[in-house]
Design a protein that fits this description.
Layout: E1 2-4, E2 9-11, E3 19-24, E4 27-32, E5 40-44, E6 47-50, E7 55-58, H1 60-73, E8 77-80, H2 96-106, E9 110-114, E10 133-138, E11 142-150, E12 155-159, E13 167-173, H3 190-193, E14 205-209, H4 216-227, E15 232-236, E16 252-255, H5 257-269, E17 274-277, E18 281-284, E19 291-292, E20 312-315, E21 319-322, E22 334-337, H6 340-357, H7 363-372, E23 385-386, E24 392-393, H8 396-399, H9 406-409, E25 414-415, H10 420-429, H11 434-441, E26 462-467, E27 470-479, E28 485-492, E29 497-502, E30 505-508, E31 514-523, E32 531-539, E33 544-553
Parallel strand pairs: 2-5, 2-8, 8-9, 9-10, 10-20, 13-14, 14-15, 15-16, 19-23, 26-33
Antiparallel strand pairs: 1-5, 1-8, 3-4, 6-7, 11-12, 11-17, 11-18, 13-17, 21-22, 23-24, 25-27, 27-31, 28-30, 28-32, 29-31, 32-33
Helix pairs in contact: 1-2
Family: Belongs to the peptidase S8 family.
GO molecular function: serine-type endopeptidase activity
Keywords: Glycoprotein, Hydrolase, Protease, Serine protease, Signal
């Protein structure tokens, strides 16, 4: 659905009253509230369940109508946890979200959209229009640790939402050497294990491994083991960050491959392996770190590589959310949900709060404020990793500017602002024809010749997908802090890339509220490379206005090289 909704009006689940002593069967207990509790919410239904397809269908016409109604109603923020596949160019009217968002932004309405849940593969990010704030999902500094004690007294901490009774020491099995020959090994993947009729599961806990990226792999394994009389299942898998309880509170615990292998080696070391499974408990703070969720869709932008997407990240893993009381697995109207659909209203709530402070800011200014002040380390100062296979340090294609920092965003100091002329410049610069641009804008539009450079588009980021030797680009900063301010630049250049900023000092006063600077970028590389990352920061000793740099050297035109 498309949500709209405050004395600020926000389109989201950004609002919401305080509900004390809330939990899911005792997990994540505390007080829940919306990101902007005093916001007024308007909800516009755009998706309809289709019985024949057994899926929700969201037509472009319904989405556009909802956005049009929201504009007419005077909302301040629109939040859309929706996306299109396949992708369309921003000027293509078949992309109702991009079209509707463009007109909303021209009416001063900030539009916040989900990046999608097709990660961790590259080029999967959706909602790519540069007038949209596109949101990635991170985990919280919270986990649901589930202690499992092996017969050798080693304790393994798995992850689960198991709230049943402790399962005392129980026989633990792994499906191998179960074929007709003594040396025959049946495949140990969960999917094949569960159709192996030779495995006796009754009264036992079963260990299996899966390569499936889908969360249904765990629930399917649990269902089969339960039907076969088993008492629990341990699933070893790649991290996917989607955790759900299993039906009837059946013990289903997830571990990574390393811990799964530890359990397997224990099983092989003894004739009578056993395991005890305790109920899950909520673990908050250290040593649990913030990570970009594996499912969160990643850049680079597949349509316009010079436009960084996603823009920003927010918590979207195992969010305790309100739901209907007839929804599966709900506990008194609350449930855990994961996805960029959960992260999106978090950003919408932040924008609503910022809107209450800065009524005259443009949508681009709000985007700049949250991007340039975002955390690039977690709240404990540790670097943020991106889940996947393998896990790696997060970069701008995982989380844009970083993890949203609402308090810092309230006073960003400087913003990279934009309006209609900038968006037209963008569409001209990437080669869209004038008729399609005119149709979107609503009036005849003529592009300059030669067309402008997309690298001069005033984003709070610099992404250069095809640096051959050297390029110079321009950015403009608007002062929203103290009238008389002096900022000095600091650059962390990407590996093998030279970055020179002119001037190195920006002076703002009552007559100079907008000041431009130039960035010259040159490469030391002599071969085509992947992307390297850095940052550019303007600081007045109080505010640090930071944007990500992403540069790929392309000596020859980019081509696919399977080697």
């Amino acid at each position: 659905e498309t949500y709209s909704g405050h004395g600020t009006h926000v389109a989201t689940i950004a609002g919401g009253s305080y509900v004390p002593n809330t939990s899911y069967k005792g997990l994540a207990r505390g007080t829940v509230r919306g990101g902007a509790p005093r916001a007024r919410i308007a909800v516009y239904k755009t998706c309809w369940y289709h019985d024949d397809l057994e899926a929700n269908i969201c037509s472009s016409a319904d989405i556009l109508k909802a956005m049009d109604e929201a504009i007419h109603d005077g909302v301040d923020v629109m939040s859309l946890s929706l996306g299109y596949e396949p992708l369309f160019q921003e000027t293509d009217v078949r992309d109702g979200i991009s079209t509707g968002a463009f007109h909303a932004v021209l009416n001063g309405i900030t539009v916040v959209c989900a990046a999608g849940n097709a990660g961790p593969a590259a080029y999967t990010v959706a909602n790519l229009a540069p007038w949209i704030i596109t949101v990635a999902a991170t985990s919280l500094d919270r986990s649901f640790a589930t202690p499992m004690t092996l017969g050798n007294n080693k304790v393994i901490l798995g992850q689960a939402m198991y709230t049943g009774q402790e399962l005392g020491f129980t026989s633990l099995v792994f499906p191998e050497n179960l074929g007709s020959g003594s040396n025959e090994v049946i495949s140990s993947t969960c999917e094949l294990t569960l159709i192996n009729g030779n495995l006796k599961m009754e009264g036992k806990v079963v260990l299996c491994f899966t390569t499936s990226p889908f969360d249904t792999a765990v629930s399917s394994a649990a269902s089969y083991v339960k039907r076969a009389g088993g008492l629990g299942v341990i699933v070893a898998r790649h991290p996917v960050n989607i955790l759900r309880p299993c039906l009837d509170d059946f013990p289903c615990v997830v571990v990574d491959y390393e811990l799964g292998t530890d359990i397997l080696l224990y099983i092989r070391s003894t004739e009578s392996p056993v395991v005890k499974i305790q109920p899950s408990r909520t673990l908050i703070g250290q040593p649990v770190g913030t990570k970009v969720a594996a499912f969160s869709s990643r850049g680079p932008n597949p349509i316009s590589a010079a436009i960084l997407k996603p823009d920003i990240a927010a918590p979207g893993v195992s969010i305790l959310a309100a739901t209907t009381t007839n929804a599966p697995f709900n506990d008194r109207g609350f449930i855990f949900l994961s996805g960029t659909s959960m992260a999106t209203p978090t950003i919408s709530g932040v924008i609503a709060l910022l809107k209450a402070l800065h009524r005259d800011w443009s949508p681009a200014a709000f985007r700049s404020a949250i991007v340039t002040t975002a955390w690039r380390t977690d709240p404990f100062g540790e670097e943020i990793f991106a889940e996947g296979s393998p896990r790696k340090l997060a970069d701008p294609f995982d989380y844009g500017g970083g993890l949203v920092n609402p308090e810092k965003a309230a006073k960003p100091g400087l913003v990279y602002d934009m309006g209609l002329e900038d968006y037209v410049l963008y569409m001209c610069s990437v080669g869209y024809n004038e008729s399609s641009i005119s149709q979107l804008v609503g009036r005849r539009t003529v592009c300059s010749h030669p067309r402008p450079s997309v690298l001069d588009f005033n984003l709070p980021s610099i992404t250069i997908p095809n640096l051959k030797e050297e390029v110079t680009l321009t950015r403009i900063l608007t002062n929203v802090g103290p009238i008389n301010s002096v900022y000095r630049v600091a650059v962390e250049p990407p590996l093998g890339v030279r970055v020179t900023v002119t001037p190195e000092t920006l002076v703002f006063d009552s007559t100079a509220k907008r000041v431009s600077f130039k960035v010259r970028v040159s490469t030391k590389h002599r071969i085509n490379t992947g992307y390297y990352f850095g940052s550019l920061t303007w600081s007045d000793s109080v505010h640090n206005v930071t944007i990500p740099l992403s540069v790929r050297t392309q000596i020859l035109p980019y081509f696919y090289d399977e080697n």
